[in-house]
Amino acid sequence: MSNDFDDELRRALKSVDPGEEFARRVVAQIANDAARSRRSRPLRYQWLSAAAAASVVLGFLITHDRQARREQQGLAARNQLLQALRVTGEKLELAYRVVNDETQSTTSNNPGA
What we know:
The chain has 113 residues and is an all-alpha fold. It has helices at 2-12, 20-109. It has one domain (19-108).
């Protein structure tokens, strides 16, 4: 039975020449696919270059916006610092005057000291 099965399997798997027509159709299909691929390639990659350009522009705009916000925050912080320094200066000036006025009053009231 083993020999019969082997012989039957060999007959079933025997190579068959498909003929010249099959080879010609395969070559024609390959050429047709290659031509179609060359025509569609520029259209396929056009959106890719447009997307890349849009990404660059978007990145530039985001960077510019962040820089402008950072600059605005810096100016606001600067104004707050200047205002705090002005208030501190005024308070120190007032404290200086109070201390000096009290010292002059006590020395003028107590001449023997």
